[in-house]
Amino acid sequence: MKLPEDKKQRTQVFIFIGICVIGLGYLGHIAVQKMGSSREATKVRKEELEADITKWERQIAHMPKYEKAFEELAGKIKALEAKYVLKPKFTSHILPATELIEQAAAEFGIEVEVKDHGKPPPYGKKAQLLGYVARVNLTAGYNQLILLLEKLETDNPYLCITKINIMDGPEDQLHRMSFHVEWPVWAKKNPLKALKVTADRPKKDGNAK
Amino acid sequence: MNLRVDLILDTEQRSASPINLKSIIRILCITIPLIIVVIIGIALAKANQSRNELNTLETTHALTKPKFDEAVAMSSSLKNYDDLLDELESWKNARIEWHKQLREVQKQLPLEMDIQLTELEVIGASKLIDNRYPARVFTLTLEGKGTGGGAENNIGRLMTVLQNGEAFAPLVESLEVKRFDKGARRSDRVFTFTTTYEPRIFK
Q1: Between B61, B76, B106, which is nearest A142 by CB?
Q2: What distance in Å separates the CA atoms of residue A119 and residue A186, rounded to the nearest whole number?
Q3: Whole-angstrom Cα distance, residue B120 to residue B110?
Q4: pLDDT (tens digit, 9 = 90+) per residue, B102-119?
Q5: To 10 degrees, what angle do helices A142-155 and B98-107 make?
Q6: CB neighbours of B141 closer than 8 A, spacing ≥ 6?
Q7: Measured between beta carbons, which residues in chain B are less than 8 angstroms from residue A77?
Q8: Less CB within 10 Å around the terminal CB: N or C of chain A?
Q9: Do B126 and B195 share a domain, yes or no?
């Protein structure tokens, strides 16, 4: 394409081209600026995401360790609760309590009367364990009582004798006695069952590792 | 009279300058838009690359989140289990093995001491230590009488042992004499004292 021969017209063409270039430059500048600010926002978002991912991956890396620790703890707690936490029979704790005390007393030839003494207030606001107390009345010798308490306290290192009363009895060697035995029992439902769900979930989804 | 004859047309005129302005303008007319287009192109490419990277990160983020949630849930469950085990173990600490204490009391009362217990009472109560730590506090009350000339000394010795004896000292906090009187005979003594044990904290 040839430029017009007329000088005036040629100048007009140059001015037009100049305006076009300036306009194009301006548009380019706006576009680059907009892209720049969008890139800045993208960069910030990317940094946020990368920070999240790094933090999360660090936590995820602990999963096998958590699982192992979880299994160990769960096993330990289950074993302890099976042996030492008093579980209700037909919603009542007095039946298993009576059974345990009568069994122990029978070993030393003692006859006992076991009565329900209820549950004291929980030890601590967030306590998951409560106490269940049974009152035991008996007439026996001092040594027999010691043997019975020894049996109960040794068989279950978590129960507690919270009250003892020994008074004169019908004979010199026999005393009227009573004592309270307190076992740990679950405050609400068995928390092991509730926690088991959380423990099993990762394995089912296959997202654990 | 001067006569001027133009032998060359305007269009045929050539500049004596080594750089032709028209050419420069022509070159600039092409290169400037080209540079602008290239700059815009590069910026677009970079933005596109950045967006692709962001998309990849978003996908990784979305995929990592559930795993992270599992890990957090597991860690929280682990803490719950830990707390539960601690709580269970705390029951072991929050008791006194009374068969041992009763056996020790018996040991301290041999027949030759002529001290006869008329009542023995252990009471356990729950208490909050420092407004924070739940605990059991036990008291042991012994009521009895001593007969014979050495009654006062024997009872005094019993009191000392209940406070400082090997089996009692690590557990006992204090001993309070509630009664120490003459008995039926002049040399006889009746007594009541209460031993308070150190709080057994659930910890």
Answers
A1: B106
A2: 11
A3: 16
A4: 999 999 988 888 899 999
A5: 150
A6: B119, B120, B121, B122, B123, B178, B192, B193, B194, B195
A7: 81, 84-85, 88
A8: N
A9: yes
Share of chain A above pLDDT 70, in %: 89
Q: In the listed set B93, B116, B132, which residue is the last one of a domain according to the structure?
A: B93
Q: What is the pLDDT of residues A94-152, one digit of tens each?
A: 999 999 999 999 999 999 999 999 999 998 888 899 999 999 999 999 999 999 999 99
Between residues 80 and 99 of chain A, which touch chain B (CB distance below 8 Å)?
Answer: 80-81, 84-85
Give chain B's mean pLDDT: 89
Residues B195 and B104 grouped into a single domain:
yes
Q: Output the six-digit token pair for A174.
A: 């026999």
| Interface contact flag, B67 A60, Cβ < 8 Å | yes
Tokens of A200: 């099993």
Say how many residues make up chain A: 209
Which 8-state DSSP code applies to residue A125? T
Among B195, B197, B192, B155, residue whose Cα is nearest residue B175:
B195
Boundary residue ending a domain (B78, B93, B108): B93
What is the tens place of the pLDDT at every residue in A60-96?
A: 999 999 899 988 998 999 999 999 999 999 889 999 9
- Over 70: is that where the pLDDT of B172 sits? yes
Displacement of CA B83 from its chain's centroid (Å):
10
- What is the pLDDT at residue A194? 57
Judgement on whether residues B66 and B119 belong to the same structural domain of the protein: no
Looking at the DSSP bridge assignments, the partners of residue A134 are A116, A181
> Which residues in B lie closer than 8 A to residue A24 (C-beta atoms)?
32-33, 36
> What is the rounded distance in angstroms from the CA atom of residue B163 to the CA atom of residue B173?
8
For chains A and B, CB pairs below 8 A equal: 203
Using an 8 Å CB-CB cutoff, list chain B residues near A52: 61, 64
